[in-house]
Amino acid sequence: TLQSLPESSPTYRFDDDGEEYADIKWDELGFGLVQTDYMYIMKCSNEGEVFTRGELNPYGNIEMSPCSGVLNYGQGLFEGLKAYRKRDGNILLFRPEQNAMRLQMGAERMCMPSPSIDQFIDAVKQTVQANKRWVPPPGKGSLYIRPLLLGTGPVLGISPARECTFITYASPVGNYFKEGIAPLNLVIEETMHRANPGGTGGVKTITNYAPVLKALTHAKSMGFSDVIYLDSVQKKYIEELSSCNIFIVKGNRISTPPTKGTILPGITRKSIIDIAIDQGYQVEERAIEVEELIDADEVFCTGTAVVVAPVGSITFRSKRYEYKTGAGTTSVKLHSILTCIQSGRIEDKMGWTVEL
Ligand code: COI
């Protein structure tokens, strides 16, 4: 059963159709935390090595040992998925089972037990249902759901934590980049790398993200939106950005780097590949040399947070290369099909959406 709402909860507002919405400025959403009412928590101790029963709690701070695996050695994973409100007021999740499976793969790599697929989807559904008034009205954004799997038990020497905690919270969001839907300006990062062969670049561990802060912050201070990382061995193949995957378009051919351990297997990436094939594009997952960016027609990025973002320019060794953006481009077409499926505006032939 739900516990009472936190005292600070904003008042409810009813729209014309009688739907309940939180009283916030829906037109001003960016990608920052807006606290919602509830989060879901489920614990697992090594005794049984399985998660048993979780429950909703009021959204708030959590307590853990200062000696926990996650705080000391970064034993943690996260996921990201979105819930969209349809025009009829119902709510759609996009491919939640894919996030559940990716979390399981990551848990195996990080020596943690993970929730079953059903437990994961149930936690996500309960979190969205309990925070329903925070799912933006159609066309105003989405509810971003952030599941976390953390080693919360104490570990002084390096070893897997004996207690793990699965938490799911949510926040309404708009566009990820401050550019909104305007094209991104990227820069190639040549000295810092995001991932190494044999490392954890292919799973969504929290430890992949703090190390990008230095390159990202520097790029932003120079006016760029994000950086493109190169492979750490030959230093000539593009990998991904700090926050999303990358695609290039040349004529009818769409290419993206293969997910062979150093690239995050994005669920939006995978969905865009399927949509592009269905639309008659030739899609290739292959190593892409940085030089190839120079004569691409279009470049775009994909991610749950980012959705499909067009790239207007890439700067490489102080030279700026520009790409087609706007009406009639491949990225606009793919963005439109994806978001129409996600928000229930076109038929979901792929069977990707899950109605709450
Ligand atoms: C997502 O797209 O869901 C991510 O996890 C990327 C994150 C940097 C916001």
Automatic annotation (TrEMBL):
It comes from the Eukaryota. The modification N6-(pyridoxal phosphate)lysine is found at K204. It is an enzyme of class 2 (transferase). Coiled coil: none annotated. InterPro entries: Aminotrans_IV, Aminotrans_IV_CS, Aminotransferase-like, B_amino_transII, BCAT-like_C, BCAT-like_N, BCAT_family. Keywords: Amino-acid biosynthesis, Aminotransferase, Branched-chain amino acid biosynthesis, Pyridoxal phosphate, Transferase. Its EC number is 2.6.1.42. This is Branched-chain-amino-acid aminotransferase.
